Predict the structure of Quinone oxidoreductase.
Amino acid sequence: MKAIVITTPGGPEVLQLQEVEDPQVKDDEVLIKIEATALNLADTFQRKGFHPPPKGVSEYPGLECSGTIEAVGRNVSRWKIGDQVCALLNGGGYAEKVAVPAGQVLPIPSGVSLKDATSFPEVASTVWSTVFMTSHLSAGETFLVHGGSSGIGTFAIQIAKYRGARVFVTAGSEEKLAFCKESGADVCINYKTEDFVARVKEETGGRGVDVILDCVGAAYYQQNLESLSIDGRLFIIGFLGGTHREIDLRPLLAKRLTVQGAGLRNRSLENKAAIISEVEKNVWPAIAAGKVKPIVFKHFPLSEAAEAHRLIESSKHIGKILLVP
Ligand SMILES: NC(=O)c1ccc[n+]([C@@H]2O[C@H](COP(=O)([O-])OP(=O)(O)OC[C@H]3O[C@@H](n4cnc5c(N)ncnc54)[C@H](OP(=O)(O)O)[C@@H]3O)[C@@H](O)[C@H]2O)c1
């Protein structure tokens, strides 16, 4: 098969389409012939050599895909050859085929094309496992997501609105904020021109928000603590603003705050399967009802993976970027 190989750690040009061995399907896995894969910012970290695949996992990038099942391991009962599916991958999505543990496979949500379905597994698993399974965002609460126009952000806005939350977003341009508003965000904050803490306080009558999903890390840590309400919950999933900073911790005690963080890729297979099962139960009905839509910015042929990486690193996109073998 053909796959995108990271020929050496570096810039987008190190991504090259090469002829490689087909993946071998293990007893608990299925083999998917890939219709499309989607980019995640983490793929660019892997390309640069900062985010190596876990042991035993395909070295090709790509954390999600959609496609058709071509082979089934002997312990797999739910899926059969010919099923159209999408899947959360441990790696290996930038290819024509991938082997994936059966517990990480999902049906195509009704109303979504086979190609566009690849835009859901990574964002749905990340947002559901953090904001809902862990931080317990509930109807009537307020929710702030940083990077509102990102793949993660565009999904988080829609699912949080569907679940009855009031949604706040930050983003770096008026065009991105307009898109967030159209997708359902209630309060849209341009972090380049506005102080988001002041705006959150103003919009909540001084109370603060109940839950924050943060991909900025150190640069926003203090402001995030200040933006939370009593019993507020901060979930950190990224460090776009670095990992080190001096912090005044007093809001933690004064407001009984909870701060948590997690990566998705390094979780155990059992843990990922449990998340996928919750996603199917709780998120898939929202997609089938048309309340959560795939937000696809652009498709590229797999051979143009380098160009797709240049686009995601330029931050000019809104939502997901797809690669099609
Ligand atoms: N822990 C996990 O399991 C997990 C899983 C998936 C994703 N993530 C993280 O979630 C984030 C979003 O991922 P994605 O793939 O959806 O990314 P994406 O679509 O590439 O979007 C990233 C967005 O972050 C914003 N941004 C960049 N630098 C920023 C900064 N210094 N301050 C504020 N905003 C900044 C950019 O928008 P602006 O133009 O508005 O700046 C950009 O659109 C990434 O940090 C990623 O690593 C974590």
Q: What stands out?
A: The pocket of NAP is lined by residues 40-42, 122, 126, 146-147, 149-152, 171-173, 176, 191, 215-216, 237-238, 240-241, 262-264, 312, 315 (CB under 6 Å). The two ends are 10 Å apart (CA to CA).
